[in-house]
Amino acid sequence: MVANMGEKEIIEIASNKELGLAECRARCIVDNAKAIVKVVKECGSFSSFLWGYFSYKPVINKYRYPRNVPLRSPKAEVISKELVRRGFRLVGPVITQSFIQAAGMTIDHLVDCFRYNECVNLAENPWKHV
């Protein structure tokens, strides 16, 4: 388990040239894994922790132009601050916004994107796709 990695394993991963991972990044990964373990103990799952910020329902946006899609949002700011408070690293609001977009917690596809209707349908009727 990543959360249990010791000093020797972190240095070994950081020295692996194929991975190209700086030692500080490897340490962040281990620290974040430890923080996730704590969140899971407290909230049952990392998913429940994050979805709680969205009342377990994705935010469906209706952007027309790429310039309207935010790099960060007020929700991402709040989540980012809470993650940092809980010991996570490298989780600024831009990274957090990217994560919540990728996880489907916010639908930020443009309305004329070929995936928009499919994503909205999944968000509005999740039980049909389980």
Automatic annotation (TrEMBL):
It comes from the Eukaryota. Coiled coil: none annotated. One of its GO terms (biological process) is base-excision repair. It holds the Pfam family Adenine_glyco. Keywords: Metal-binding, Zinc. SUPFAM superfamilies: DNA-glycosylase. Zn(2+) binds at H109, C113. GO terms for molecular function: DNA-3-methyladenine glycosylase activity; metal ion binding. This is DNA-3-methyladenine glycosylase I. It comes from Nepenthes gracilis (Slender pitcher plant). The lineage of its organism: Eukaryota, Viridiplantae, Streptophyta, Embryophyta, Tracheophyta.
